[in-house]
Structure formats: C-alpha cells, structure tokens
Design brief:
Length: about 180
C-alpha cells in the first residue's frame, strides 16, 4: 500500500470515527486547523521504525505548536502483530525518558488488533484504540494539559468511550469503519 493510501485511511478514521463519534473531544480543532501531521513510516524493520519515530519526535520538538500540534505515525509494515507493536511502544516510551522528554511529550497507542489488558479480544471497548494501521500518536503534554483544564471530568473519557463502543454495537462500529475507509478514497 502506498503512503498516500495509508494517510487517507488514517485521515478517514480520524474524521469519521475519532472526531465523528466524539472519542477525542480535543481532536477536531487541530485536525480542521491543519495542525495534525500524519507521517507514514516507509520501513518495516524495528531499528528503522524507531529512527522514524525519533525523527518525528524531533520535528515536533523543533516546530511550534501553532504550526504543528500533534503527529500520528502510521506504521503499515513491520508491526502487524500487536505484541511487536507493544514492544516498540515500550522502547519508544523508554526513549522519551532517556531523552528527558517525559512530561513534554506523550504517546497514545492505536493498533488494528488493540486489546486492553483484562478484556477479551472481541470486547467492543477495544475499538476505542483500534485503528486502520499501527499508530503512535505523539502529543504535546502542554497542549493536552491546557485542553483538559477546560473539560469536565476528563478522567472519565476512556470509560465513556468504552461504554460508547458497547452502545454502538459491532454492526454499527463496522459500518462506521467501512465509511471511514472510503471517506478519503
């Protein structure tokens, strides 16, 4: 799959599923203002993926939030297995600590096979973190903190989203994901 197709699929998922269903109450503004970067990792080996993630982190670090608020790194090759993805996530989070960027940036995780610890694979709540490709969402802590200050009970967002997925039901979720995959095609 070419990078443009991957980018369109991620953008469709963001618009229809994440923003359209209100899963992230803070996503619409930056997305519609053009402050969200979708970076498609062109390599499949762990070292190359890691270097790509570091490059995107560096780009965020050196670009003002007014020009680039957040980055989603899509990895269409190399991390199809959820355990491999989790391994890379742990390595990258360790890098944030080593680079003394913990508290400056945060990584949100999304994967087509996402399963929350303690849930079954078929639990609909997992769809809150299921995406068309493995994604690493690089967020600025300062921006996230500012958004959370004006939002009532932000600690309830994950639970609310999981309940929303269960309310929607499998058929409706799959319809939305199908619509998302064709939204940018």
């Amino acid at each position: 799959m070419n990078p443009e197709q991957v980018e369109r699929a991620v953008l469709g998922w963001l618009e229809v599923f994440v923003v359209g269903e209100g899963l992230c109450p803070f996503a619409a503004g930056p997305l519609h203002q053009g402050l969200v970067r979708i970076s498609v990792c062109p390599v499949s080996d762990p070292d190359g993926i890691y270097r790509h993630l570091l490059g995107e982190l560096d780009r965020l670090l050196n670009t003002p939030a007014g020009k680039l608020e957040t980055t989603l790194v899509a990895v269409p090759q190399g991390l199809a297995a959820f355990d491999d993805y989790l391994d890379m996530l742990a390595v990258f989070q360790d890098a944030l600590v080593q680079l003394q960027l913990e508290g400056v940036f945060q990584v949100a995780s999304f994967h087509p096979q996402y399963v929350f610890e303690g849930t079954s694979v078929d639990d609909l709540s997992n769809y809150t973190n299921r995406s068309p490709y493995p994604l690493f969402h690089l967020l600025r802590e300062e921006s996230l903190s500012a958004a959370l200050q004006g939002y009532p009970e932000p600690e309830n967002i994950p639970q609310r989203n999981q309940e929303r997925m269960r309310e929607l039901g499998r058929e409706r979720i799959l319809q939305l994901l199908t619509r998302a995959s064709s939204a940018q095609g």
